[in-house]
Specification:
three-stranded antiparallel β-sheet; 5 helices; 8 strands; 46% helix
Length: 233
């Protein structure tokens, strides 16, 4: 015989379902449910009505977690894309900058001998060699390079960037009197045992112009030429 009536069991079913009733009460309810189909059916209804919100909450929880994960992935993807874009932009700017410097600033192009005119080669009173150089193409010369070969030949070569610029200066590296200190060149030579035997102006492989060679007798410099270098001192 059941100790609890159906009305009392129905009132206690929510507490039983939530597992907040005492152990003795729980045993009494379970004993009643074992013999009462109506109360058992009420318990099933209670379970069904409570299960749906739990499932919905769980589903929403999963969707919220998935959304949070996607949001985190989205932010990480945007950050990675921004970093890649920044790196690419920096690389492109670097290449453009190096390209500009290489084409417009670095003096890597030799001026051809065909536009070089050498005149007034003479010997100064102090033993140095004087000469006048003029480039006839009207473009600026940015640098003069000197290189000694192992056979005793020394080459003086004017240099420019790949993209040359017009010059509006009357005087400069492309139109001036220059001098050669042969004694100093020999002292600075990589191999002192090999003395400089000839000096050329222009690229080595482009018919450079001979300025002086060993045994050549140069005319003495005029007073005007001597004055050019006295004024520089």
């Amino acid at each position: 015989m059941n100790k609890l009536s159906c009305e009392i069991v129905r009132d206690l079913l929510p507490l039983y379902y939530d597992e907040v009733c005492s152990a003795d009460t729980r045993k009494s309810i379970e004993a009643h449910l074992a013999t009462c189909e109506h109360c058992t059916a009420d318990l099933h209804k209670l379970q069904q009505s409570s299960r749906l919100p739990f499932e919905v909450i769980e589903k929403n929880k999963q969707e919220s977690t998935a959304l949070a994960n996607f949001k985190g992935y989205w932010h990480r993807s945007r950050a990675a894309a921004f970093a890649r874009g920044l790196l690419l932009a920096t690389t492109i700017c670097g290449v453009i900058g190096l390209g500009y410097v290489g084409l417009f600033r670095w003096n890597i192009t030799q001026v051809p001998s065909s536009v070089i005119k050498i005149s007034d080669v003479s010997l100064l009173k102090d033993g140095k060699i004087a000469y006048h150089v003029k480039l006839t193409d009207g473009y600026r010369v940015n640098q003069i390079s000197g290189k000694s070969e192992g056979n005793g030949n020394f080459y003086i070569t004017p240099m420019r960037p790949v993209f040359k610029t017009k010059t509006d200066a009357e005087l400069g590296l492309g139109n001036s009197y220059e001098l050669i200190d042969l004694e100093q060149l020999n002292a600075n030579h990589t191999d002192p045992s090999t003395q400089i035997k000839a000096i050329y102006y222009g690229p080595k492989d482009d018919n450079p112009i001979l300025i002086w060679k060993q045994g050549m007798q140069l005319p003495p410099a005029t007073d005007a030429v001597e004055a050019q270098f006295r004024d520089r001192d």
